[in-house]
Design a protein that fits this description.
Keywords: Membrane, Transmembrane, Transmembrane helix. With about 50 residues, the protein is an all-alpha fold. It has a domain of about 30 residues. The chain has one helix and no strands.
Length: about 50
């Protein structure tokens, strides 16, 4: 019943490209969290 990897669209692919994309995504999430923290701090400062 189980097919080969090719049947499911899973292949060896370009692992280096995936690792690079993952690193960029993690960096974007980190900087996004910093940006949100700065915006929240500004809003709290404006309200206070």
């Amino acid at each position: 019943m189980a097919g080969s990897d090719a049947d499911h669209g899973v292949g060896k692919g370009d692992l280096g490209a995936h690792v690079t994309d993952y690193g960029r995504m993690i960096a974007m999430l980190k900087w996004g969290a910093v940006a949100v923290a700065v915006i929240v701090a500004c809003v709290i400062w404006l309200i206070a």
